[in-house]
From TrEMBL:
Its EC number is 2.3.1.31. It comes from the Bacteria. This is Homoserine O-acetyltransferase. It is found in: Cytoplasm. Belongs to the AB hydrolase superfamily. MetX family. GO terms for cellular component: cytoplasm. Substrate binds at residues 202, 326. Pathway: Amino-acid biosynthesis; L-methionine biosynthesis via de novo pathway; O-acetyl-L-homoserine from L-homoserine: step 1/1. GO terms for biological process: homoserine metabolic process; methionine biosynthetic process. It comes from Rhizosphaericola mali.
Amino acid sequence: MTKSHIFEYNQPIRLESGRKLERFHLEYTTLGHLNTSKNNVIWIFHAFTANSNPEDWWAGLVGDQKYFDPAHYFIICVNMPGSSYGSIGPLDINPITKTPYFHHFPLITTRDMIRCYEKLRVSLGIDKIYLGIGGSMGGQQLLEWAAEYPNLFAHIIPIATNAQHSPWGIAQNTSQRWAIEGDPTWKESTEISGLEGMKIARSMALLSYRSYQTYDYSQKGFAEETELLPVDKQKFRASSYQHYQGEKLAKRFNAYSYYALSQSMDAHDLGRGRGGTKVALGLIQSKALVIGISSDILFPPNEQKYIADHIHDAQYVVIDSLYGHDGFLLEFETIGYHIEEFLKNSSIQITKEKNVY
């Protein structure tokens, strides 16, 4: 059974920036049940604009009779702080000013995020996580937690992610924030401020999520409703697609969260305060399977190779895909196969028990 929960932490927490959150809340989803040995936990980390229910965005991997089956696992996914989907975010009330944070929402780094998740984990009485898995920004959080608590995860599977966000990725995010800043409404403090700019930002982001081959395969030609019109009235299918994706996101996300989370991604650096990324990756004690996507231009495979090279005895796989970065969401059959092989060959197995919580 899929359940949605709210975890509230009513004490101050110090952020990496030095600022404080007076309190915070996390929305999280659970699927399945915790067994009596509490050793069947799967912790899934979602990416940039996703939510805490992995059945919504990773249905090929999560669900009944899927690779992560709630009949066997207790699956947890937390909506990352700063998002639009229930956890503390820019539209929430600042307890100090009694008004929404809006533009003044503090930077919450990927390390800050996992420190919030740690409070939730402790409250749930979970001492060990059988498997942590996440792609893109989700993988960044996973690596942070695995480095911060080296013995917490028995297994980790970071996919299409990195140990430190790249100059290329930061440039992409900066340009997208610039599009939001260029929206005249961004100067206002309303819930819908910056939405037109965010539509453009999303359109720009898609070009890094996909690839030349993706568009060549799926967006050739003209929009069907215009292909018989005179040439000056025709609209390219690729153009319509970009507009559609921007409008689609604006119906479910806000510009403040988009802006804030892109800054969180830019600040990701596993090596900060730990002696560099090589040292930080070397702290991780989990059995690791690191997966890259061949056509990923945002988080190219060399970044995953670097991760695997510096986690002790890590396995490394590159999946051949034409879907670019989004291959981590779409190539679920191939990803599932590698997950099965990885876990099947692991010396750590889940206790088979009938009695569950």
